[in-house]
Amino acid sequence: MNSNVFFGSFERILRYRRKNAQEFGKKNATLELLKSSILVAFSGALRIHIAFLLLQIHSSIFTCIAGGLVIYSVYTLDRALGSEEDVINRKELSGSRKEIGLAASMITFVIGSYILAKEGMLALAFLPLVTGFLYSKGIKIGKFALKLKGGLGVKNFVVGLTWGAFISGLAGSTCRSMLPILLVFTFFGVKLFINSTIYDFKDIKGDTLAGIKTLPVSLGAQNTRNFLLGLHLLSHLILGISLINGIIAFEPIIILYSFICGLLCIHNYTKTCDIESRSRKFERTILVDGESTSIVGLKTIASAFLA
Question: Name one Pfam family in it (predicted).
């Protein structure tokens, strides 16, 4: 074998390996895109179940599943469309096949909205979808332009308002009194506002470069931490008083665990760090995204012991 043949073969091997490495990277990023919203969707479905419990209404498994599918659809759509700050904040999605993410988002939304339509709640399915699109991309008609992203704390407000209304609306569709629904809306709206702000602490670099005025970027870490703590204490004080007075169901495990978990999250995860360790990321995921799973688990164990 002469040198030209040898080097030619070697070059073809290198090209083949580069091509396969790129394909593997795209497949891996696409898989990451598809699975990145599973936990938040599962957590959201359990939050709907918790809302049923607080409202003293028999929980509908189909409503919870449909809600989870809509949540998955909205978050996957947001990540598939991408944004400027995601280049830094979500590097693991770089190179993913966005069309697959969009297809998965469309399929799950159709299934979820079909179930909700059969229960007479189709409008609630479109609430987070439309709001999410207005936040991520916005609309422009002539000189008129509407985009929710960019203002001080707007993202957190949109997250809290939208998902608070979605969760309390699904669970409270048959509730005769508005006051318990408003209390459940406040509980989840404030909870998700705080959670989204906690996640902003790890995204400060990307949000700053993209010009997005999140609360940690604009107010600073300590001021934001104090604000979240005050909001957390106030919301749980209101829920505690409502629980004692019988306005919502007597569910002390839900309120107490949420209170303790919220304090831990605000204390531990409102500190900026350039590189987040795997153990810290796992711990944050369990406490923030896995809170509803823990609550339902504790509630099930307590019910078994009481029985």
Answer: UbiA
Domain count, the chain: 1
Which CATH number covers residue 193?
Answer: 1.10.600
Q: Residue 48: which of 34, 63, 35 has the closest Cα?
A: 63
pLDDT at residue 202, as a whole number: 78
pTM of structure: 0.82
Q: Is the pLDDT of residue 69 over 60?
A: yes
Characterize 183-210 residue by residue with b for buried, 16 or more Cβ atoms within 10 angstroms of its Cβ, and e for exposed.
Answer: bbbbbbbbbbbbbbbbbbbbbbebbbeb
Q: Which residue has the higher pLDDT, 129 or 23?
A: 129
* Cα 240–Cα 246–Cα 248 angle in degrees, nearest 5: 70
Q: 39 and 289 in contact (C-beta within 8 Å)?
A: yes
What is the CA 86 to chain-centroid distance, rounded?
15
Cα-Cα-Cα-Cα dihedral of 126, 172, 154, 277, to 10°? -100
DSSP count for the chain of H helices, then E strands:
14, 2
- Rounded to 10 deg, the angle between the 122-136 and 154-171 helix axes is 170
